[in-house]
Amino acid sequence: MTVSNGVNGHKNTAGLLNWSYFKNVVNGELETTTNTRHSINPATGEPGPEVPVATLDDVERTLNAAKAASEKWSEVPYSERQNAMLAYADALEVEKENFSQILTQEQGKPLVFARLEVDLAIHWMRTIAKLELPEERVVEDDKEIIVRFTPLGVTVGIVPWNYPILLAAGKIAPSVMAGCPIVVKPSPFTPAGDLKLVELAQPFFPPGVVQVLSGDDSLGPILTEHPIPAKISFTGSTFTGKKVMESASKTLKRVTLELGGNDPAIVTDDVDIAAVAAKVAGLAFLNSGQICLALKRIFVQESIADKFLEAMVEATKTLKVGPGTEPDVYLGPIQNQMQFEKVKTLFADIQTEKWKVAVGGSGKGPEGKGYFITPTIIDRPQLDSRIVKDEPFGPIVPFLTFKDDEEAIRLANDTQMGLGASVWSNDVERANRIARKLHAGNVWVNTHFELDPRFPFGGHKESGIGTEWGVDGLKSFCNSQTLYLKKVPA
Ligand code: NAD
Fold first, then answer.
1. How many angstroms separate the CA atoms of 172 and 8, rounded?
2. Are both 48 and 126 inside the same structural domain?
3. Does residue 167 belong to any structural domain of this protein?
4. C-alpha to C-alpha distance for 120 and 452, rounded to whole angstroms
5. Residue pLDDT, tens place only, 350-372
6. Which is the most buried residue in 96, 108, 337, 375, by most CB within 10 A?
7. Which domain range does residue 419 map to?
8. Whose CA is nearest to atom 8 of ligand 1?
9. Whose CA is nearest to atom 10 of ligand 1?
10. CA–centroid distance, residue 187 to ligand 1 (Å)
């Protein structure tokens, strides 16, 4: 594989990165800090690599470098930006295995899914690089009206720990393509991969265009409050998203908020029970349930409920729990201790709420130091119970039932969240009819979580504001400007 030239005309070769250090990237330079910290490998409890803890001075220098780069970068022709982004994606492909290994080490997901995440990041970068942002133009007898999209300026991309590589790439690509320098802020739980992802960008972009700062919990608020960024592209919990919006409001920064979900699956009575139950179980427990778009409420039509639950239990029993480095593992550990303790409070509710457990239920996993939890299905808990109302973000899911389509739609929509939803049915017309009634930003028929970077992604209600990806996602990094150009002399 050869890596093509970027904007800097830099010719890269294989073995692009040195994986023995992890540094901030400020104005094209790799930097470390006096204080450092490390994440924890959630499968073993061992410390991850030392990473910087950015200081206020680092923040100032980084944002000022981004501001200085902004004017020039916004003037770089679109086709050159495209070439740089495509070259960057090629470089990621060369380094795919190293990124996959670090992802499993610090995030915990099985290696096969880590590789898939890196593949998706490459695909996202390439696809977004190929999107166009043309001017819209209306020509009339006496005037021409043009709508154009101009870069907002410096942006900050705040990334969560569940898909750190894909979600960082999904912010870097549209920001940079729109002409906006970006500062990436990784989650303190998964900093190493994102530091390397930004380091990898350096040969292809001028200094200050793609930067990264690793820090502790204080860094996010410092960035959202700072006057230089024009936009915060945030992915994380609804709780934090509200804080980000409040902080950004002080300088009227633009925000895109990609937040939590409580996705329903609606399964009608005509499906192939074994096949659909296996798919639904897989989509509830993928990434150990730590996906914004994981299936978090399973609604099955009453007449097939018992058989479907039985099949789902059988499918769930086949999903192996363990370290992501072991072959055939489907569920790695919970990513961090805080989340582990949070998920375990739902297991404590099993006793107090007298929930019926269909499979799992111990809140434990294989022996060892890792944060493992065996996948668990709760059989028909009360609709107002915490397992139904809240986003567990772990491998525990409620199994629920409905009588008819109307009830399914009502129950599925009975949530403050609105990220994703899916309908599973052999009657495609019926499924499409139900799909159009669901209040969510992403609705699938007979699949779930199958995203496409050519199209906008976002949530309804408390699942977010705005969209990322697709042409609308590019526009979200731009101001819209309408030009009214009279053809007659003044
Ligand atoms: P989180 O909200 O705790 O943290 C997300 C990021 O925000 C981290 O980088 C964190 O350091 C930073 N942060 C924390 N407090 C901040 C503040 N006050 N100001 C600015 N930044 C701050 O989320 P998490 O636990 O990392 O991720 C899990 C959540 O993310 C789940 O709710 C999940 O549904 C959601 N999520 C949503 C999407 C989506 O696209 N909608 C994708 C993945 C995850």
1. 18
2. yes
3. yes
4. 10
5. 999 999 999 999 999 988 889 99
6. 108
7. 263-445
8. 187
9. 187
10. 8
CB 15 within 8 A of CB 96: no
**pLDDT in the model for residue 396:** 98
* 224 Cβ closer than 6 Å to some ligand 1 atom: yes
Residue where the block lists tokens 């690793």: 214
Would you say the CB of residue 162 lies under 6 angstroms from ligand 1?
yes
Distance 240 CA to ligand 1 centre (A): 6
Q: Cβ(235) to ligand 1 under 6 A?
A: yes
Give, using CA atoms, the residue closest to atom 20 of ligand 1. Answer: 220
Q: What is the C-alpha to C-alpha distance for residues 266 and 297, in angstroms, rounded to an integer?
A: 9
pLDDT of residue 8: 52
Q: Are 97 and 173 members of one domain?
A: yes
User: Model pTM?
Assistant: 0.96
The catalytic position among 258, 391, 462, 468 is 258
What is the residue type of 142? D
- Residue 75 known to be catalytic: no
**Do 110 and 194 sit in the same domain of this protein?**
yes
Contacts of residue 475, defined as CB under 8 A and 6 or more positions apart, other chains included, come to 133, 149, 178
Is residue 180 included in any domain, yes or no? yes
- CATH number at 407 reads 3.40.309.10
Atom nearest to 457 CA in ligand 1: 40
Q: Whose CA is nearest to atom 40 of ligand 1?
A: 258
Atom 11 of ligand 1, residue of closest alpha carbon: 187
Find out whether the beta carbon of 391 lies less than 6 Å from any atom of ligand 1.
yes
Please name which of 177, 62, 77, 182 lies closest in space to residue 127, comparing C-alpha atoms.
177
CA pair distance 191, 63, nearest whole angstrom: 19
Is residue 303 located within the same domain as residue 247? no
Angle between helices 164-178 and 78-94 (to 10 degrees): 160
C-alpha 186/C-alpha 184 separation (Å) is: 6
What pLDDT score does 225 carry?
A: 98
Contacts of 401 (CB under 8 A, 6+ apart): 299, 300, 301, 302, 305, 380
Q: Measure CA 34 to chain center.
A: 31
The burial class, CB within 10 Å (0-12 / 13-18 / 19+), for 216 is exposed
Say if CB 33 and CB 53 are below 8 A apart.
yes
Low-confidence ranges of the chain (pLDDT < 70): 1-14
> Is there a single domain that holds both residue 31 and residue 141?
yes
What is residue 475's predicted lDDT score, i.e. its pLDDT?
Answer: 98
Rounded Cα gap, residues 97 and 128, in angstroms: 23
In 3D space, the residue among 242, 348, 293, 322 whose CA is nearest the CA of residue 44 turns out to be 322
For ligand 1, whether the C-beta of 261 sits within 6 Å is yes
**What is the position in ligand 1's atom list of the atom closest to the CA of 188?**
11
- Say which residues have a Cβ less than 8 Å from residue 215's Cβ, sequence separation at least 6: 52, 53, 54, 185, 188
